Every structure is written in structure tokens, then in C-alpha cells.
Amino acid sequence: MKMKDDVLILAIESSCDETAASVVKNGREVLSNVIYSQIALHTEYGGVVPEIASRKHIEKINQVIEQALKDASVTLQDITAIAVTYGPGLVGALLVGVSAAKAISFATGIPLVGVHHIEGHISANYIENKDLEPPFVCLVASGGHSHLVVVKDYGEYEIIGRTRDDAAGEAFDKVARAIGLGYPGGPKIDKLSKEGNPNAIEFPRARVADNAYDFSFSGLKSAVLNYLNGCQMKGEPVCQADVAASFQKAVTDVLVEHSVNAAKAYGFKKLAIAGGVASNSSLRAAFEKKCEAEGISFYHPSPVFCTDNAAMIGAAGYYDYLKGIRSDLDLNAIPNLKLGER
Ligand code: KG4
Ligand code: ZN
Fold first, then answer.
1. Does the domain formed by 8-122+306-322 have CATH 3.40.525.10?
2. Does the predicted model carry a pTM greater than 0.90?
3. Is 133-301 in CATH node 3.30.420.40?
4. What pLDDT, on the 0 to 100 scale, is given for residue 1?
5. Any residues with Cβ below 6 Å from ligand 1, and which?
């Protein structure tokens, strides 16, 4: 039921290979969350093909938006504002969501709010953790990003660490391909690791000399490839599960260590994680253990809110809306949009 003062956001997300729409009430209550995943379409190419992604978004976007309104039992007349991801992401994919949002806004006069995709991932934590408020530290680990962010206030961010090369999810995807698991690698490595020994192979934990919070995963990826080549040359069998578990442990150790060190150094007792990699079961277990030992409250979204979805854009869009942020009809897709910039 919508009360007079409720703020209902219709949120739209199409930055990569998920066509998604959601209705979010007052920033934290998800009334609907529709996700059309294109993963099966891209699997045969071993990764996301931008042209195919854009075409599929065009086919699905109206259907997904209609379903989100229907599932929430509302009509456009109930909607207070439309929030849409306008960057970063694949430009052709972003444009589909942005165009749909602008068309609805133009036709109905409902205000439009452009949202940063990473701000969405971070805000996914607000959905199920009703008590979580800034400031806190958030690790964002997805297919395209590995950022350590100080969330100073709603919509106010400082990036204190970033990856120098591959994103964490990208490393999962590349290693999965190398050991023959296919795309997307993260969930497959997560599952297979449960049967492997995380201490079987000692892979490197990279440190970046001039910033303790930066990440680097390309050396780890090369170490896995070298290990696989070495086994092949010596004619030794490869235990896929041990490689997966040992690789996953190497990534997890670094992500947990840097994030907890940052929380301690900045004096925050709250640490959150976000992005597709945040759904990794071993990463979540390691964070839970370490945060408990350090007296830090640990927050994470459910897996469905970790990977790309529109509910997280609705949560972020709500706080942007309250701040008075509005986008004009000349809102454009910005593939390399920086966090905190508009
Ligand atoms: O946030 P997301 O859906 O899209 C981007 O914004 O990039 O993240 C997708 C990434 C992929 O690289 C995928 O392999 C990874 O998240 N991922 C995982 C898991 N589930 C998805 N990585 C590790 N463990 C998982 N369970
Ligand atoms: Zn994402």
C-alpha cells in the first residue's frame, strides 16, 4: 500500500548483461525486483558480447519494466521518481535503460534521477540492513570494479583503494576459463572450491607498494596460468578443485585484509561488501570471522542484491532524490563515469 508521503522509485538497470527493473519504497523496501539475465546467451562466447547485450536489452526492457510495476501492484501514477543507471558500463547497454527512463519521464512528467552503478552496488546494503547508516567502509568487488570506498554520507564517497589491473570478478572469470569451467567464473569457482583444499597451492598475495589499500590481481592470474602450464609440461594431473580453492583463498585473503585494515585505520566499526564477488560464500565467511574478531559489524546484501539488479539502483536513487538531485532529458550514458561525479 502506498501512503501519501511514501516515495516510490521505479528503478532501471541495463549497464551490462542484466535487464532489470524494480519498485522500491522509501529507499529500503523492495516491492518488486525483476531481473532478466542474459548470462545463458553470452556463455557460448565465454564473456559478454556488447552488441548482443544491447540488442537483448532493447527486446526486454519494456517487458521487464511492466512486470516490475505489476509485481509491485502499482501503476506509473504511483511512482514518485524514475532512477536509472547512466554509468559506468557498456555504452550501448546503458543507452537502452537511459532511453527507456527518459521516454517514461517525458511522457508522464515523473522526475528522472541518473544513478551511478557503483553507488547502486553500495546501496544494496541498505535494503536488508535497515539499521545501516553512513559512515562506513565498503568493499565493492564486481566484474568491472574492485574499489575500497569510504561512504561518508548518503551519496558522498571517497575511493581509498582501487585495482591497478584486473577487477576481482574479472580474475575469477579468467581463472575459471583457464581451468575449463566456463563463464561466468565466479559462481563456478565458488561451488567447485567447496570440494578443494584452499592450502594445496601457495599462490601470491599481491601488495601494492605505495597504497596499502590498492589491489592487483593480474600477478595471481599469471601464477595460476603458470601453475597449469607447469603441470601440463610435467605431465602431472591438475586437481581443478584445489586450484579453484587455492585461488579463491588468495583473492579472499587480500580483499579481507585490505578492507579490515581500512576500517580500523579510518576508525569505522562498520564494514560492508557489495558487487557480484560479494556473493562468494568463502569471502563472506572470511569477512564474518575477521570482523567478529576485530569487533566490527559486518554487512552484506543477499546474493540476488550483490549481482546486477535494479533494486539497488532504487535504493541509491531514493537518497539522491531526497537530496534534490534531478536529471534532465539530455541525460546521456557515460561508460566511464567516476564515482561521486555527476
Ligand atoms: O556486480 P556484477 O553482477 O556485475 C558488474 O557490475 O561487474 O558482478 C559480476 C561478477 C562476475 O565477474 C562474476 O564472476 C562475479 O561477479 N561473481 C562471483 C560470484 N558470483 C558472481 N565471484 C565470486 N564468487 C561468486 N559466487
Ligand atoms: Zn555491477
1. no
2. yes
3. yes
4. 65
5. 16, 142-144, 169, 172-173, 184-187, 190, 275-277, 279-280, 307-308
